[in-house]
Amino acid sequence: MLNIAFIAHDRKKEDIVNLAVAYEHVFKDKKLYSTGTTGQRIMEATSLKIHRFLSGPLGGDQQIGAMIAQNEMDLVIFMRDPLMAQPHEPDITALLRLCDVHGIPVATNMATAEILIKALDRGDFGWRELVELHKPKAE
């Protein structure tokens, strides 16, 4: 089962809720995670069940980052607000870096999110199993 994380800055929460409503049928059989308020808002608008971590500024971004570092996350949808400075910007940068280091697809805007969700719906995420097969064994 694929693990998906939802994160959204305050001015992007409505966008991520609308995305979850539009693609609820794709997300319903996935294991979903989110930062606090974002997850609450999505659950209020859909029938999706989401494991909620702390709010992003209180460590939720880092909790999701820990899952990425442990190869326990398959997709991150992070609706960032590029026009507003964030007080926890170092946490955001660290999360995005972890996605790059571990090859986790991350969408930071609606266009990319929709492309990744449509690929997910088509079953195009088989490459994750290939990564696991060819990953060096820890000694």
From TrEMBL:
What does the UniProt function comment say about this protein? Answer: Catalyzes the formation of methylglyoxal from dihydroxyacetone phosphate.
Sorted alphabetically, which Gene3D superfamilies does this protein's record hold?
A: Methylglyoxal synthase-like domain
- Lineage, top-rank taxon, reads Bacteria
By its UniProt entry, which SUPFAM superfamilies does this protein fall under? Methylglyoxal synthase-like (SSF52335)
Q: Which GO terms describe its molecular function?
A: methylglyoxal synthase activity
This protein is called what?
Methylglyoxal synthase
Domain MGS-like per the UniProt entry, residue ranges:
1-139
Under the heading HAMAP family, the entry gives: Methylglyoxal_synth
* Example of a GO cellular component annotation carried by this entry: cytosol
Gene assigned in the entry: mgsA
Q: Which family does it belong to?
A: Belongs to the methylglyoxal synthase family.
Coiled-coil region(s):
none
Positions bound to substrate: H9, K13, T35, G36, T37, T38, S55, G56, H88
GO terms in the biological process aspect are: methylglyoxal biosynthetic process
Which reaction is this enzyme known to catalyze? dihydroxyacetone phosphate = methylglyoxal + phosphate
> Which residues act catalytically here?
D61 (proton donor/acceptor)
What EC number(s) is this enzyme filed under?
4.2.3.3
Q: Which keywords does this Swiss-Prot/TrEMBL entry list?
A: Lyase
